[in-house]
Design a protein that fits this description.
Number of strands: 7
CATH class: Alpha Beta
Number of domains: 1
Strand content: 15-25%
Bound molecules: NADP nicotinamide-adenine-dinucleotide phosphate
Shape: globular
CATH superfamily: NAD(P)-binding Rossmann-like Domain
Radius of gyration: 17 Å
């Protein structure tokens, strides 16, 4: 049977591109979505090998139901891509507990919870690949995005810890930390701001969703990379 891939937040942006790329390679893709039902339905209609599943991945019960149903239908999940996320810009002194809970739940708890629900079946099969989409801001911090940066740094810490714990079960865990990628997430920037950002990037351009999807494809096919944070950022952040 083809490899079964679950992508959280597959309805738009980076997740959607990953879903299409992997479906075209012959993987059976399950693209999770929450609010963007129309885009998700279109994704399914336009692509063979893509199923869609509605679940708010910041909620344990919804994730549990989704994973249970996928295992019932496909008997396994070979690859989990924790991609769902939100971002919000606010000065630190304005951030409320509500903001904290929203961002931590959507960006960090979602990845923890989905991984926990999926990983037992991977351990039992002694095989699995987990890819977490973090961010350069988790590596170097971002002014006015402290909570988002904390969440993404947490994702990378989870990647490294799980890679160590799950290596003996033949489960590889890696992060991809994008720089700026052309999606709805960056709609908040006007053209001048985008040009200013480009000036700071050695490759002088904004990334494409396909830049991330190509790396995901490589990480799935690879057999010896684990615990790594691969930053795809045009040279914006070089550590
Ligand atoms: P996007 O275009 O805004 O898409 C976000 C996706 O996440 C949507 O499919 C959305 O689904 C989903 N999502 C959010 N909360 C969810 C929840 N609770 N349950 C299920 N799905 C949820 O953003 P993007 O740029 O593709 O971002 C994808 C990932 O890359 C995020 O983790 C983001 O932090 C990371 N990233 C992006 C950039 C960038 O420059 N674009 C840079 C670094 C990191 P619905 O619309 O269906 O709710």
């Amino acid at each position: 049977m083809n490899k079964v891939v679950l992508i959280t937040g597959g309805s738009r942006g980076i997740g959607r591109e990953i879903a299409i790329t992997l479906a075209q390679k012959g993987y059976q893709v399950i693209a999770n979505y929450n609010k963007s039902e129309e885009q998700a339905k279109k994704l399914k209609q336009e692509n063979t090998n893509i199923e869609i599943f509605k679940a708010d991945v910041s909620k344990r019960e919804e994730v549990h139901k989704m994973v249970e149903e996928i295992i019932r239908r496909y008997h396994k999940i070979d690859v989990l891509i924790n991609n769902a996320g939100i971002s919000e810009s606010k000065i630190f002194t304005d951030v409320t507990d509500e903001d904290w809970n929203k961002i931590i739940n959507n960006d960090l708890y979602s990845a923890f919870c989905t991984t926990q629900e999926v990983i037992t079946s991977m351990i039992n099969r002694k095989e699995g690949c987990i890819i977490n989409i973090s961010s350069i801001w988790g590596l170097v911090g971002s002014s006015c995005e402290t909570i988002y940066s904390i969440a993404k740094a947490g994702i990378d810490a989870m990647t490294k810890s799980l890679a160590k714990e799950m290596g003996p079960s033949n489960i590889r865990v890696n992060s991809i930390a994008p720089g700026i990628i052309d999606t709805d997430m960056n709609k908040c920037y006007n053209q001048r701001e985008i040009e200013d950002i480009k000036e700071k990037i050695p490759l002088e351009k904004i990334g494409k969703t396909s830049d991330i999807a190509k790396c995901v494809n490589w990480l799935i096919e690879d057999e010896y990379t684990t615990g790594q944070v691969i930053s795809i950022n045009g040279g914006w952040v070089i550590l």
